[in-house]
Amino acid sequence: KWGEVREGLRRAVGASNYKSWIEPLEFDSLDDGVCTFRVATTFLGNYVSTNFGDQILFHLNRAGQTVQRLRFQTANIARPPASPAAEPAEPAAATDEVEFRPEARLTFDRFVVGKSNELAHAAARRVAEGGQVAFNPLFLHGGVGLGKTHLMHAVAHEIAQRDPSKKVIYISAESFMWRFITALREKKMMDFKQMFRSIDVLMVDDVQFIAGKESTQEEFFHTFNYLVDSGKQIIISADRSPADIRDLEDRIKSRLQCGLVVDLHPTDYELRVGILQSKIDYYEGIYPGVTIRDGVIDYLAHRIVTNVRVLEGAMTRLYAFASLVGREITVELAQDCLADIFKASDRKVSIDEIQRKVCDHFNIRVSDMIGPKRLRAYARPRQVAMYLCKQLTNRSLPEIGRHFGKRDHTTVIHGVRQIEKLMQTDSQLADDVTLLRRALEA
Ligand code: ADP
Ligand code: MG
């Protein structure tokens, strides 16, 4: 089966990515929804997991396997990377002070607030200002590039300004795990515990990473409880809600939920315009003399409906290019220079592709999904597809309706609401939607 999946992946990621990243993977086992690969280095595993994980999952599931999670196993995971050359940085010794200086540009001032992120923003602000512990923990979740890390750094800036004596630590869940593993190996658990328990504010980013990593979870849980019980503030981020993180112990889920859980929604057009406009000054600072014509911002906000990171990437490239060739930034320049980004973004906005992938996922035919059949086996996937079209494309509801053979758009509204509602309680459905969404956004 892996052979077949690899074929699909080769087409999906392109020949050169395939050769560098997918081909070296050695299939190990598939057990209880967890697919394990053997990899040469931790770096390779991490890289593949971050960049191609969703696509691998998608293709495995498409090939009829039920896989929820990927695992990349190095020869001996507890040993530090063997070949420093191929590795980014050697994981820090377990008990080095976790140094954290928030990135200068990631402040509240520079965070543009819109409908989709106002709650998360308000909550983060409150926590940063809070004399007494306001929401503990604050759990921020949302898709990639929507501002979770930005908000966490902003909280750190704000706290540092208000009370420099406070010890604020920000750490990715991955790095938490590394430190923990290293502490175990170096027999420095006491120091490790001591270090993490002496802080005032702990922020753990991308906590979904520790799903399935049992002993790391265990340690995280103790640290978490200790800090909360001593009245210290905790902020957690993840790419999905606590309830939707598989392979996370129930007791941890419930503790994560007992503070305030807020999500960052995908950006809407107005927010994208706002964010782009807010960055103009910044870019003009870096590329003095480059001017941007009216209409370009508007155009970009329409054309790029993915995440803020992609928007920023587009701006950076435009300014760099314009400055290089000594031209002003026009819509035509953007068209030339960002064709590949648009293409990637357009792929996302194709209703056909959403329909195809959803049908693949649920194992039904597109013609059955589009038709009027009321059978639940078709109705639910149809609603999921409508929901994804609403979320991932910039098409109007009537337009979406037409693609599903509906003459008016009330069916679409109903379908979207239905899925939104069901996802709250039906974790299987929520997982299906998350998986599809990530595969489509990849
Ligand atoms: P996440 O951690 O959710 O994946 P990040 O916080 O890293 O996303 O955000 C990705 C990029 O987009 C960062 O450069 C961040 O500054 C920028 N960004 C995200 N949301 C906003 C916003 N509302 N206003 C300004 N910049 C934003
Ligand atoms: Mg982040």
TrEMBL record:
Domain spans labelled AAA+ ATPase: 134-264
GO CC, one annotated term: plasma membrane
Domain IV, binds dsDNA: annotated segments: 323-442
Start and end residues of each Chromosomal replication initiator DnaA C-terminal domain: 350-419
PROSITE patterns membership: DNAA
Key words, A-Z: ATP-binding, Cytoplasm, DNA replication, DNA-binding, Lipid-binding, Nucleotide-binding
Gene3D superfamilies noted in UniProt: 1.10.1750.10, 1.10.8.60, 3.30.300.180, P-loop containing nucleotide triphosphate hydrolases
The keyword ATP-binding belongs to this UniProt entry's keyword annotation: yes
Keyword DNA-binding assigned: yes
Lineage: superkingdom: Bacteria
Binding site for ATP: G145, G147, K148, T149
Region of interest (Domain I, interacts with DnaA modulators), residue spans: 1-78
Swiss-Prot/TrEMBL GO biological process terms: DNA replication initiation; regulation of DNA replication
GO molecular function: ATP binding; DNA replication origin binding; lipid binding
Pfam families: Bac_DnaA (PF00308), Bac_DnaA_C (PF08299), DnaA_N (PF11638)
Compartments reported by the entry: Cytoplasm
Domain observations: Domain I is involved in oligomerization and binding regulators, domain II is flexibile and of varying length in different bacteria, domain III forms the AAA+ region, while domain IV binds dsDNA.
Quaternary structure and partners: Oligomerizes as a right-handed, spiral filament on DNA at oriC.
Family: Belongs to the DnaA family.
Role this protein plays: Plays an essential role in the initiation and regulation of chromosomal replication. ATP-DnaA binds to the origin of replication (oriC) to initiate formation of the DNA replication initiation complex once per cell cycle. Binds the DnaA box (a 9 base pair repeat at the origin) and separates the double-stranded (ds)DNA. Forms a right-handed helical filament on oriC DNA; dsDNA binds to the exterior of the filament while single-stranded (ss)DNA is stabiized in the filament's interior.
Protein name as annotated: Chromosomal replication initiator protein DnaA
Gene name in the database record: dnaA
